[in-house]
């Protein structure tokens, strides 16, 4: 009875030993395998606490394919973000700094008459607006001749145009921050420095496109009274030598796309409206100081021309979306030249992105080109042209070469020799 019992015990012992040996071999194999794979799982940042566990069912080949696809996706994402910041390729220009304006200005207005640049209004800061005119002399590089604006005149977002002596000033925002607009309209005799009233606009507007065309003062688009909703309305008033020939504004064909901050230019008896945006900052509801509050905006490349039959024609679009250019243009040799501005907001940060290019619209070929770079990106520039040189002053510049969002309001004056593209 004993022997059979001993044989059974030794058999159990053998089975147990075999199991233990098998367990050790498997454990050793798994340890070796895990140490090899660990190098593939470890993050490049050794300080990171994030644990990445791969799918054991994915082959090395499939992992490589997924890694390649992820890299491509990241690269595409990077290109999208970079494009929001990117300046268009352009030749370098040699800029020369001139006499700085007496005060910095944002959203001001300017009109050139011969060798003089009349500079109006504008924000000094978001809480302070200017209510006077400064005059820059291109010939001797001096500022002077300051005089006051009428007390009822808007301080920013003005519509403005000249016939060579008289400057017509239409509507705009009255006060700092994001206060309401006024319908008041004026005319300035630049020789006597005397102001006169004109019939008020039917309703107030922010930054409407404004021009003199065929004996009539045209005002169109802009933003409505809430500062954000695009206006499509178009009015005109017959004027001559600084005087209205009518008591009321006449309704004209609406503009195809509304909004503020666009260039409005007449060349060879044709009226062009260029760039602009839909939407703008609004006053924060209930704010006693009408504090500005960000709202969605769409900046566009659209260009329209009003033809002989008073119909709007679509023209070739700008090289990139551009706004805040209502006084950022000059006409030289049948070309419209535009300096700086703003483009679409950054897709992630939603911050405003400034433009740093000089653009040319050749009216002979109906082609756009980028003909130069500015010293920095800047919006609401006030632009002139004298003796073969392009000038700009004022506005709000960028934070630096690597950050195109707006920062400092400036009064600097710059000039460069202008070289146009013939094609």
UniProtKB/TrEMBL annotation:
Coiled coil: none annotated. InterPro entries: Kelch-typ_b-propeller (IPR015915), Kelch_repeat-containing (IPR053256). Signal peptide: none annotated. SUPFAM superfamilies: Kelch motif. It holds the Pfam family Kelch_KLHDC2_KLHL20_DRC7. It comes from the Eukaryota. This is Kelch repeat-containing protein. It comes from Acacia crassicarpa (northern wattle).
């Amino acid at each position: 009875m004993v022997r059979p019992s001993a044989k059974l015990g030794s058999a159990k012992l053998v089975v147990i030993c075999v199991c233990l040996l098998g367990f050790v071999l498997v454990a050793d194999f798994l340890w070796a395998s895990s140490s090899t794979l660990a190098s593939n799982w470890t993050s490049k940042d050794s300080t990171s606490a994030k644990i990445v566990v791969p799918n054991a069912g994915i082959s090395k080949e499939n992992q490589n394919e997924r890694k390649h696809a992820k890299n491509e996706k990241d690269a595409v994402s990077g290109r999208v973000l970079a494009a929001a910041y990117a300046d268009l390729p352009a030749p370098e220009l040699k800029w020369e700094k001139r006499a700085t304006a007496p005060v910095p200005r944002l959203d001001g207005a300017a009109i050139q008459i011969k060798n003089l640049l009349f500079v109006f209004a504008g924000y000094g800061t978001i809480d302070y607006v200017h209510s006077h005119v400064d005059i820059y002399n291109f010939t001797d590089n001096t500022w002077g001749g300051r005089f006051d604006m009428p007390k009822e005149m808007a301080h920013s977002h003005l519509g403005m145009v000249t016939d060579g002596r008289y400057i017509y000033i239409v509507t705009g925002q009255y006060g700092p921050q994001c206060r309401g607009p006024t319908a008041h309209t004026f005319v300035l005799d630049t020789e006597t420095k005397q102001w006169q009233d004109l019939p008020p606009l039917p309703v107030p507007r922010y930054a409407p496109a404004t021009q003199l065309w065929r004996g009539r003062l045209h005002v169109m688009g802009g933003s409505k009274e809430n500062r954000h909703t695009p206006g499509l309305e178009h009015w005109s008033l017959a004027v001559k030598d600084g005087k209205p020939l009518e008591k009321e504004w006449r309704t004209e064909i609406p503009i195809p796309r509304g909004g503020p901050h666009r260039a409005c230019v007449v060349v060879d008896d044709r009226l062009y409206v260029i760039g602009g945006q839909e939407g703008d900052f609004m006053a924060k509801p209930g704010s006693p100081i009408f504090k500005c509050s960000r709202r969605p905006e769409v900046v566009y490349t659209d260009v329209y021309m009003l033809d002989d039959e008073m119909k709007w024609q679509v023209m070739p679009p700008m090289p990139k979306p551009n706004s805040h250019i209502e006084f950022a243009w000059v006409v030289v040799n049948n070309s419209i030249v535009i300096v700086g501005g703003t483009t679409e907001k950054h897709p992630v940060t939603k911050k405003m992105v400034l433009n740093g290019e000089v653009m040319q619209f050749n009216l002979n070929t109906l082609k756009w080109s980028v003909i130069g770079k500015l010293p920095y990106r800047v919006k609401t520039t006030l632009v002139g042209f004298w003796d073969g040189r392009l000038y700009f002053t004022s506005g709000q510049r960028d934070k630096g070469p690597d950050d195109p969002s707006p920062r400092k309001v400036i009064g600097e004056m710059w000039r460069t020799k202008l070289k146009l593209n013939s094609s």
